[in-house]
Design a protein that fits this description.
The structure is a single chain. The protein is an all-alpha fold. It folds into 2 domains: about 60 residues, Orthogonal Bundle (Arc Repressor Mutant, subunit A), CATH 1.10.10; about 170 residues, Four Helix Bundle (Hemerythrin (Met), subunit A) (Up-down Bundle), CATH 1.20.120. It contains 11 helices and 2 strands; from the N terminus they run H-H-H-E-E-H-H-H-H-H-H-H-H. Strand 1 and strand 2 form a beta hairpin. Helix 5 runs antiparallel to helix 10. The longest helix is centred in the C-terminal third of the chain and has 24 residues. The N and C termini lie far apart (about 70 Å). The relative contact order is 0.11. GO terms for molecular function: DNA binding; DNA-binding transcription factor activity.
C-alpha cells in the first residue's frame, strides 16, 4: 500500500520582511549604491503593492541592520552596514557557544598577522599617519588601563584598515570585540603591561612604515604572545569568555 508523502509546512514570511529582503538584495548586490536614494515611502508602497505600515516596518528592519538611513531631509538612502553591527551579532554567537580565550588567541594569531602583512604591502600615507597618532595618544595614557584599552582596540582596527582588505576587517571584528576588555584587565593587573603594549605598537608601526613584512609579523606575534603571558597571570585561557568576565566582574565588586 502506497504511503502518503509527508510535506513540510510552508514558511510564509511576513510582508514587511519580504519588503526588507527585496531592498537588502538590491543594496548587497550593488544595484543600489551607498548614498543613493531608495525612494519615498509612497513610491515603495506603489512598487511593492503593500500598505504604508508594511513598508514602514520593512524600513525599520533595514535601519536597525544598518542598511539604510535617513539624510538631513529625512529621505531614505542606502548604506553598507558598519562592521561593528555585524560583528556584535557574531560575538554574541561566540559567547553562546562558550568559546574560550585559547580559541580567540589562536584565531587572532592568524587574522592579526594577515592584517599586518596586508598593511605592510598596502598602507597609504594616511593610514600610517592615523597609526602614528594612535601610538602617540597611547603613550600619553599608558597609566590609564581603560583609556589604553580603547586605543589598543583602535590600533588593531587601523592596522586592518591599512591592509585594504575588507574581508579581513570584518573577519577579525567578532573576536576583537571579545578581546577588548582583557587589555584593561591585564594593564590593571600587570604593572609593565601598558609600556610593553605601546612599545609593540611602535615596532609594528615602524615595520609598516618601512614596508618590512618580516619585522611586522615578528612584532605582531610577539605582541600577541605578550598578551597571552599577561592574561595567564590573571585568568585561564581554557575558561569560557563569558565565565571569565563574570568572575572578573564579581572580583571587582568585592
Amino acid at each position: 500500500m502506497a504511503t502518503t508523502p509527508q510535506f513540510r509546512r510552508i514558511d510564509l514570511a511576513p510582508a514587511y520582511q519580504k519588503v526588507a529582503d527585496a531592498i537588502e538584495r538590491e543594496i548587497i548586490n550593488g544595484r543600489i549604491k551607498p548614498g543613493e536614494p531608495i525612494g519615498t515611502e509612497q513610491q515603495l508602497v506603489e512598487q511593492f503593492g503593500v500598505n504604508r505600515s508594511t513598508v514602514r516596518e520593512g524600513i525599520r528592519v533595514l535601519e536597525e541592520g544598518g542598511l539604510i538611513r535617513r539624510d538631513s531631509s529625512r529621505r531614505l538612502q542606502a548604506c553598507l552596514p558598519r562592521y561593528n553591527k555585524l560583528a556584535t551579532r557574531l560575538s554574541r554567537a561566540l559567547i553562546l557557544h562558550e568559546v574560550t580565550f585559547r580559541e580567540l588567541f589562536e584565531t587572532s594569531m592568524t587574522l592579526e598577522v594577515a592584517s599586518v602583512e596586508g598593511a605592510v604591502e598596502r598602507a597609504t600615507e594616511e593610514n600610517v599617519a592615523e597609526l602614528a597618532d594612535n601610538v602617540e595618544r597611547s603613550a600619553d595614557v599608558v597609566g590609564n588601563p581603560a583609556g589604553l584599552a580603547e586605543l589598543d582596540a583602535e590600533f588593531h582596527v587601523l592596522v586592518a584598515k591599512a591592509s585594504q582588505n575588507r574581508v579581513l576587517q570584518l573577519a577579525r571584528e567578532p573576536a576583537a570585540q571579545l578581546f577588548f576588555p582583557t587589555t584593561e584587565m591585564i594593564v590593571g593587573g600587570v604593572p609593565e603591561g601598558g609600556a610593553r603594549l605601546v612599545e609593540a605598537h611602535r615596532r609594528i608601526l615602524d615595520a609598516i612604515r618601512r614596508r618590512d613584512k618580516e619585522a611586522g609579523v615578528l612584532w605582531t606575534r610577539r605582541h600577541l604572545q605578550d598578551w597571552r603571558r599577561g592574561f595567564e597571570k590573571i585568568a585561564s585561557l581554557d575558561r569560557s569568555v563569558e565565565h571569565t568576565y563574570m568572575e572578573h566582574a564579581y572580583a571587582a565588586r568585592q
